[in-house]
Amino acid sequence: MSRATREQRTAEIVRQMTQLREAYAIVSKGVCPQCGAKLHRNLSMSGWWQCDRFGEASFRRAPGPQCNFQIFYDPTPEQHNHIVTENRV
Ligand SMILES: [Zn+2]
């Protein structure tokens, strides 16, 4: 593996972990960072979380103005363990 490729791989892993950490910070609280409503899992796709005010009024779980916040937190078990351990310290 060339040096550039290894550096790119490392950068990619760091970027991915940063995204996962940010997503974990949000989904572990279970609160939408945009409107303060609760978050729920959309079970049609693994790791998909949506605001309770997401979507059309008839589909919304919480009353209030529409909010389009959604986020993916779909780590491997190893990534999840790593993040949870970091947060415990
Ligand atoms: Zn929201």
Describe the structure.
The protein has a 3-stranded antiparallel beta sheet, covered by helices on one side. The termini are far apart. The longest helix is centred in the N-terminal third of the chain and has 27 residues, at 3-29. Strand 1 (39-41) and strand 2 form a beta hairpin. With 89 residues, the protein is of the alpha+beta class. It has helices at 3-29, 77-88, and strands spanning 39-41, 48-51, 70-72. The protein has one domain. Zinc ion binds at residues 32, 34-35, 37, 51, 53, 67, 69. Residues 32, 34-35, 37, 51, 53, 67, 69 line the site of zinc ion.
List the helices and strands and how they pair.
Elements (H helix, E strand, L loop, with lengths): L2 H27 L9 E3 L6 E4 L18 E3 L4 H12 L1
Antiparallel strand pairs: 1-2, 2-3
The structure holds zinc ion (ZN).
Zinc ion binds next to loops.
* Count of individual helical segments: 2
Main beta-sheet strand count, sense and barrel state? 3 strands, antiparallel
Cofactors, ions, other ligands:
zinc ion
Percent of residues in helices comes to 40-55%
Q: Widest sheet: strand order?
A: 1-2-3
The total domain count is 1
Structural category: alpha+beta
Low-confidence stretches: none
- Strand content is 5-15%
Series of secondary-structure elements, N-terminal to C-terminal: HEEEH
Number of strands: 3
- Give the overall average pLDDT: 94
